[in-house]
Write a structure and sequence with these properties.
Length: 177
C-alpha cells in the first residue's frame, strides 16, 4: 500500500505555467453571507509559489486568521486563460480552484471536513506554529469522509501581481502533512 496523501497527475504541466501561474499572487473577495444572513466579503489571498506548492492567507469569513501552505497540483485548461489548482488540507478539507486569467475570477469547490467547518476557530492560526499544525490535523479525525460542507463559490480578483506580497515564503521541502 502506498503512503497517502499522494498527488497523481498524468497530464504533463503545460509549458505556459511560468508565464500564466508561477509566482502569481491573487487577492480576491467572495460575496458571501454572515451567519445571520447579512452580506459580507470573505477575503482570500493566494500565492502560486511553485509548480508543487501554494501559500495562502484568509482575511474574511469564518476561516479568517488561517495562514497556510500546501502541496498542490496544477492543470492547464486553456493556456493564457484557465488553470485548475487542487490541494488537500491537513484538516481533511479538499479544495479545487479554477483561476480564470482573462475574466479575473476564481471559482472554487471547497469540501470542508466536518471538523474544519464545525470548529472553524480551531482551524485558525499559522501552519508554521506546531501547536496550530497539530490541532488542524486533529480536525480531520472528526466525522467521516461523507460528513462535508460542500461550498461552491466564485470570487472577483481585486489584485493580481507577482511575488510574495505579505505572505511568508516557504521551502519546497517544508512539511505539508
Amino acid at each position: 500500500m502506498s503512503k497517502l496523501p499522494k498527488f497523481v497527475n498524468n497530464t504533463p504541466l503545460d509549458s505556459s505555467f511560468d508565464a500564466d501561474v508561477r509566482d502569481v499572487h491573487l487577492v480576491y473577495d467572495y460575496p458571501a453571507k454572515a451567519a445571520d444572513g447579512t452580506p459580507e466579503k470573505w477575503r482570500y489571498e493566494m500565492w502560486f509559489f511553485s509548480d508543487t506548492r501554494i501559500v495562502y492567507a484568509i482575511h474574511g469569513g469564518p476561516m479568517a486568521g488561517r495562514i497556510n501552505y500546501q502541496q498542490a497540483s496544477y492543470q492547464c485548461v486553456r493556456p493564457g486563460e484557465l488553470w485548475q489548482i487542487n490541494w488537500l488540507e491537513e484538516t481533511g478539507t479538499v479544495c479545487s480552484m479554477v483561476y480564470d486569467i482573462t475574466k479575473q475570477t476564481v471559482t472554487t469547490l471547497i469540501c470542508f471536513s466536518q471538523g474544519h467547518w464545525d470548529k472553524a476557530e480551531d482551524a485558525h492560526g499559522d501552519k508554521r506554529n506546531q501547536e496550530d499544525f497539530e490541532r488542524w490535523r486533529g480536525l480531520a479525525a472528526l466525522g467521516k469522509q461523507t460528513d462535508r460542507l460542500m461550498l461552491s463559490e466564485q470570487a472577483d480578483i481585486l489584485k493580481a501581481f507577482r511575488g510574495s506580497g505579505d505572505l511568508v515564503p516557504i521551502k519546497e521541502e517544508d512539511p505539508v502533512f
